[in-house]
Amino acid sequence: MDIKQIQDLIRFVSKSGVNEVSIEQENFKITIKTNEPAQAVYHATLPPPAPVAAVAAPAPAPVAEPVAAIADTSNYITIKSPMIGTFYRSASPEKPLFVNVGDEISSGSVLCIIEAMKLFNEIESEVSGRIVKVLVDNASPVEYDQPLFLVEPK
Prior knowledge:
Helix content: under 10%
Strand order of the largest sheet: 3-10-8-5
Oligomer: single chain
């Protein structure tokens, strides 16, 4: 591991909010610790807008796709991240997504890419089934063992 890779790793650790990362390779070991406490994530809900007496124009269509509620996840398999890095749903911005909700997958299907230290690692499915939910936003940092997908097994 050269100094550039170590600097990239330090930047990644500081941006991702991880408190500690250890990497061990043949004849090399590095541990990076931050002094910052873990970041808390807060979600706020705004009250609905007041009703308008008369509306001349129709309401605009929603921009985001509606998300189907998943009531019982006990019969689904969770595919988790095998490493820390940045999660990508396609090989590049102009390429199609590897998988979408509703897609049938088989063992060995590429689901996503996780970039770690400038290395792009294809993550393959170990199960066959149907993608029920993508749990991570594209280009987001992921932690080791973080859930990425919910799959309904065949």
